[in-house]
Design a protein that fits this description.
This protein is about 30% helix and about 25% strand. By secondary structure, the chain is of the alpha/beta class. The protein binds ligand LLP.
């Protein structure tokens, strides 16, 4: 049975009705399924079980402590991109030797913090950053474990805002310059070379970009070996897409089938950094319809969740399915689901066939587990939603709804 399914016309998450949870916890509300999270981490762990592999969940997709802790207990490491994310990972009990640190703009404080914690490796994005890390490590009398992020110049065929492995992108070191950069790295006093890192983009729905970039990575690994530099870790990044509408993205198994036969004799540990494919379809955002508004040309359903709660439709034009929390057999109408924010870009769906909702109805905005809460803001002084984690027929609030007092914390007149 699907984790999100209908029982007597009401939407269930595992064995509990969404309506019942929202009646107690209010709306807007993020609801996650524990089973969906565990199933996904296991899909990766099983697909790669024949080879030493660290699945370092990219917590930028969703950094809730309960989710990090749950995934950690099921064998995940964590990919962090800031000091704040490192703090969250540590607070959730993730051991530092399972943490990798990426990002183009690591500050001195963040680098020192990660060195002090003793993380598995820094994924380094530029020559200047490499020098900076080396200096800080020398000062701390340490050697920083690093992988250089190599930019393979591959088109991931996804939204331009989330493509990262093309020549024009700000990420990584161009593959042509990378051997020389590794040679230079090997002479830096604060650096210990550990791996090669690659990540070409997000929401990839075809296998071919993975194949192209993996081919280049292996060719590069060999080139590096011939130059006398041996790495122990190959970090393939994240990027596997999920089904938002009718996509049929590759699975962890498809990725494993592509990668494992070609690394099995290399003696390297694999690192993966999946984010969206772990949490995306494990969560929904529930919004309540406040008003229906009819203009000469449009039907609007105005809900209590806006772009501050779920930014993806406004920022990328992303599609999220809408499901009525209670099916009422109403006729379909073409309409927009919009939020209360003072911006025309504040929509969760536009020109969509949807049931003729009425004020008070609840709508589940599907596939909202990844880059939903983690990109939420307080714009228009709106407290961020609560988050709950369902387990079978029970749930726990894993983050309280913010209060007005939370909104002004730290400010003074
Ligand atoms: N590793 C690195 C270095 C990354 O930059 C990212 C995502 C990941 C791993 C995880 O990728 P995933 O498995 O989730 O595709 N906010 C956008 C997505 C931005 C992704 C940024 N980097 C969205 O809502 O679609």
């Amino acid at each position: 049975m699907d984790i999100f399914h209908y029982q007597n016309k009401t939407l269930m998450v595992e064995n509990i009705s969404v309506e019942e949870i929202v009646a107690k916890e209010g709306s807007p509300l993020y609801i996650y399924s524990r089973k969906a999270l565990v199933d996904q981490i296991h899909a990766y762990r099983e697909a790669f079980s024949s080879h030493p592999t660290l699945v370092a969940y990219a917590m930028k997709a969703n950094g809730n402590l309960a989710i990090l802790s749950l995934l950690g207990r099921h064998g995940a490491g964590i990919d962090v991109v800031s000091g704040g994310e490192l703090f969250r990972a540590r607070r959730a009990g993730i051991s530092p030797d399972r943490i990798v640190f990426a990002g183009v703009g690591k500050t001195e404080e963040e680098i020192a913090y990660a060195l002090k914690e003793g993380i598995l490796m820094f994924n380094v994005e530029s020559q200047a950053e490499l020098d900076h890390i080396s200096q800080i490590a020398v000062r701390m009398k340490k050697k920083a474990p690093v992988a250089l992020r190599v930019n393979p110049d591959v088109d991931p065929k996804t939204h331009p805002y989330i493509s990262t492995g093309m020549k024009k992108s700000k990420f990584g070191i161009p593959v042509e310059a990378a051997v020389a950069e590794y040679q230079r790295a090997s002479t830096l006093p604060g650096i210990r070379i550990v791996g090669i890192h690659q990540h070409i983009g997000s929401q990839l729905t075809e296998i071919s970009p993975f194949r192209d970039s993996f081919d280049r990575l292996l060719a590069f690994y060999e080139e590096l070996r011939q130059a006398g530099i041996q790495v122990t870790h190959l970090d393939l990044g994240g990027g596997l897409g999920i089904r938002y509408r009718n996509e049929a993205p590759p699975t962890p198994k498809d990725l494993a089938d592509l990668v494992l036969p070609r690394v099995k004799d290399l003696g390297v540990t694999l690192v993966l950094e999946p984010g969206r494919s772990i949490v995306g379809n494990a969560g929904v955002l529930v919004t309540r319809v406040l008003y229906r508004k009819q203009t000469a040309v449009k039907t609007f359903f105005i809900g209590d969740a806006g772009m501050n709660d779920l930014l993806r439709p406004a920022l990328y034009g992303a599609h999220h399915d809408l499901l009525p929390v209670v099916r009422k057999d109403r006729p379909e109408v073409k309409g927009d689901l919009v939020g209360p924010i003072c911006e025309s870009g504040d929509f969760l769906a536009t020109d969509r066939e949807m049931p003729e909702f009425a004020a008070g109805d609840l709508i589940a905005v599907m596939s909202a587990g990844a880059y939903g809460f983690s990109m939420a803001s307080n714009y228009n002084a709106r407290p961020r939603p609560a988050e709950v984690l369902v387990d079978g027929d029970t749930y726990r609030v894993v983050r309280d709804r913010e209060t007005f007092e939370d909104l002004v914390r730290g400010e003074r007149i």
